[in-house]
Amino acid sequence: MSESHTEPDTDLEADTDELARRAERAALRLANADEATRDEALRSIADVIRERESEILEANAADVEEAEAMLADGEYTQALVDRLKLDATKVEDIASMVESVAAQDDPLGETLAARELDEDLELYRVAVPIGVVATVFESRPDALVQIAALALKSGNAVVLKGGSEASESNRILHEAIIDATADLPDGWAALIEAHEAVDRLLELDDSVDLVMPRGSSEFVSYIQENTQIPVLGHTEGICHVYVDADADLSMAEDVAFDAKVQYPAVCNAVETLLVHESVADAFLPGLGARYEDAGVELRGDERTREVVDVAPATDDDWDTEYGDLELSIRVVDDAYDAIEHVNEHGSKHTESILTEDPETAEAFMTGVDAASVFHNASTRFADGYRYGLGAEVGISTGKIHARGPVGLEGLTTYKYYLEGDGHLVASYSGEDALPFTHRELDGVEWTPGRLLTE
Length: 454
Fold this sequence. Notes:
Distance between the termini: 70 Å
Number of helices: 15
Keywords: Amino-acid biosynthesis, Cytoplasm, NADP, Oxidoreductase, Proline biosynthesis
Family: Belongs to the gamma-glutamyl phosphate reductase family.
Pfam family, one: Aldedh
Structural class: alpha/beta
Number of strands: 17
Shape: globular
Helix content: 25-40%
Protein name: Gamma-glutamyl phosphate reductase
EC number: 1.2.1.41
């Protein structure tokens, strides 16, 4: 063994193992908590967050002060600092978000399908919680509460790991959540802080059912490469707005401006603007001036720079998530050129087309590979709250299990329940085998012992 070898922190590993076991036990109990219990706990969380507003803002101020010092040293970006900041309005928004989750329909116990296999032999597919969900996120302390609220409403236990830049904010918010839910199973919402604890957690595929990372592409790739636990998440948010030849240019200008300027630090803000060559001369000068007035740093390809005076775009710009007041512009030949660009450089997050031609809209929306594709609307609408999901755990750009903003439905899976009356497989085998009816039971909901109560 070399002298530089670092022994694992056995105490930290043991603590993480115990934390995961407690979460697993809590998940099994929470899955049996009725909707009223879960909703009451959520409303209690909202109340405690409001009661502890001053403590939350004080803790957040300490995080922001340290982050601004790191910004001055060039170690943090302004976008990170912006995502970190809380104020009284945002604290109220957090509490209201929790209440909106409580107001959502119960995602558990829903009968997704019902089928008669034979007389008095009925099969049901029913929504249930996933179990233990681990999530690792950066910067935004409100994400901790969003994720915990969605986990609770969907009957899941959750292990939370926020970024070190929000450590004080995360601690006080987690403390508020635990104080508000003292009657729930112990360990249902756990907070870890050490990077080594994350590494250990990724090894615990027997206890943790799903990991949702929210961070840089390098970080998400690290998670995917170092665990056997299913991973659901996204890396960059390289989003595009395409302005077509048949766009309403006034509308297009407003949408393209909103998509970049309304809140540039988030993953659903536009990073590349694509403009049909036939409208570039009429469209770009006005929008370019409006962007520059808002402080947006513009870059463009050669055809763009023939119309407006902007810096040249490099090949790397098309693959960059700025997360700031920066934007690249490319003039394209047509909608299919735009589709090709998006599919080559996009991150499968959110794309938008501005056009009054429904056939072109259809071609773009079906041809682009992304979790969300919009027509005549800002990419900023890609959000769990705006979708009516109450909130979101994160955005998934994959195609398995959940896609786009992941809300309550994305935190459920299903079980098959079979209700019988002493049925034997032997009865359906051999020369005298009984036939299956395989009849769909439309509108029939599963209840325990349903056949006994008829």
